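G., before I forget:
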Amino acid sequence: MGVGITADGLVMAYDDVRAVDGVSFTVAPGEFFGLLGPNGAGKTTTLEMIEGLRKPQSGSVRIDGHEPWRREPELQRRMGVQLQSSSFFDRLTAREQLDTFGALYRVAAGRTDEMLEQFGLVDKADLRTEDLSGGQKQRLSIACALIHDPDVVFLDEPTAALDPQARRNLWDVLRTINDSGRTVVLTTHYMDEAEALCDRVAIMDAGRILELDTPAALVRGLDAPVRISLAPGTLSLEDARAVAGADEVAAGESALTITTRDPSRVLTELASRDALDGLSVKGASLEDVFLELTGREYRA
Amino acid sequence: MTPFGSLARAMLKGFFRDRMALFFSILFPLMFLVLFGGIFTDQGASKAEIIQVGPVAVLDDVPKDARAYVDESLDITRSSDLAAAVVKVRKGDADAVISQDGDTLSVRFSQADQVKAGQVQGTFAAIVQSANLAVTGQAPKFSLTTARVEDKSLSTIQFFTPGLLGWAIASGATFGAAANLVVWRRNGLLRRLRLAPIPTSAVVLARVAVSIAIALVQAVIFLAVGMVLFGLKLTGSWPMIVPLLVAGTLAFMSIGLLAGSIAKTEEAAIGMANFVVLPMAFLSGSFFPLDGAPRWISAVGTVLPLKHLNDGMLDTMVRGEGPAAALLPVAFLLVFAVVVSAIASRVFRWDD
Ligand SMILES: Nc1ncnc2c1ncn2[C@@H]1O[C@H](COP(=O)(O)OP(=O)(O)OP(=O)(O)O)[C@@H](O)[C@H]1O
Ligand SMILES: [Mg+2]
């Protein structure tokens, strides 16, 4: 069921930019793969070459042995695609959109109701897509991509425009899909999303892949210190400095923060002093990795 | 439902829910039909309104056999005030004042309505002439009979229904294809469809089927309104309008596809389509006959698809020609469609 993907040396250059500049990776069957990167990094362009919307100027893509730009129906039937900007038939209702996309994949009519239910659109089924809110449109667009129960799913920023509930619900849907052995590839700006969902993440910038690994390995590789905060007054500044393993101590309005590369030693020591009021521990996140790799400058 | 069927259904629903498209492809041409039908029907039927001042021998003592002719073409009221009657004519409330002065009959008319002016002068010239002949006491040597060459039922509505229908079909097919292409390219639907397991031809054929269905709806509504309101009568081979309409739709769709492929925005596509279709409608005689037009206009007409569509429909719908009269126009339209579609497919883009 799961489908493997190989991208090898993909290049797509426009007049003045190399939007994708030699991107290679493989996605194993059943893997949940994330493409992360700032605006203009080349995520969409990479995804479009993999989906078969663009033929790479050089390099090659194989999905389960097929070259996607040849648009073979056998492959396309197994692929579900949600493009970055939702595209619908004009003046059709949500239900009619699902019916129409379903018919393109020769899906039985009952699927429409399942999808409306799954994506919380039952109340909006008879509203024209022009009248849906941004997030509702986004949900419908994903529902249209999944209506034929594809083996491999490509989602370009699926959670953009979604509220927290919808975002978590979509995560559940995607996890379920992936747990049943299907391959999922998505792009996102949200680090928590990539950390929560992806087996492996490729961090892209300026058309290249900078790092590619599991989220945990990426964070570990950063070797960033852990920040331990306590309620103010729990410990005096001097006492805190004396804690074994503490690299740095800062007393703020709302918290006393100890920075350390050896959190277990610091925590043991704090426990022995019975100084755990308002304790919170914050490790490095994928966001830190991301900012470390791509810098803080705005992207084109 | 098949992919083709579901696409066609989606396009049809999109069309029938688009008030602007409905207005411009159905109601707007129909307004012209009703307008033209109204104007010309009235003019053909109405009598000239004559004010007679004082006794007029030729009118008062018209012989029995000529009475019917006079009653048919003149609506006579009497008045004793010559000056007031002339004012009425000047204002357009009456068409002419007639009075007799000795042996001279005087007709005062206004040139503002040229048709009426001619009708009034001709009628009275004839009356005076036959009165003169009667005075000589001789039997007339020559007599006149008249017969129309067209179907007996032919009235003006017969002439412009095919032309206006041709224009309606041409605009509907051109704008439909152009707008559809641009809108779907801009909102990304073309790309999305490209990733669905359907051949490109299914999308194109669905659009063709929808455009033909719309053209059929236009034709049915046009013919129904023409027949019910204005007494349009179809002649023997009128069913040939179906192949004409199909071929015409293909030809104009190809123009629309070309415009939609070149244009970046919907407005530009519609502007481009207008730029082609509107002048073509004039040069193809959709709005008025080109009998008196200079030769170069009819020369241009021979390469215009709408001219061939109009001629084919005129021949088969109202001129009573056989089905064969549609063959040449259909062939021309199909060749035109193939050539322009080939050009359009070269400039076609899936996305911008
Ligand atoms: N058709 C095009 N013509 C010219 N340049 C293009 C075209 N499409 C994309 N680009 C450029 O290629 C680069 C990569 O674009 P891409 O859409 O792949 O970025 P992205 O990572 O998806 O960004 P975002 O997070 O904003 O969606 C950008 O600099 C963009 O301006
Ligand atoms: Mg993008």
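Chain B has two domains: 2-41+155-347, 46-136. Chain B has 14 helices and four strands.

More on Monday.
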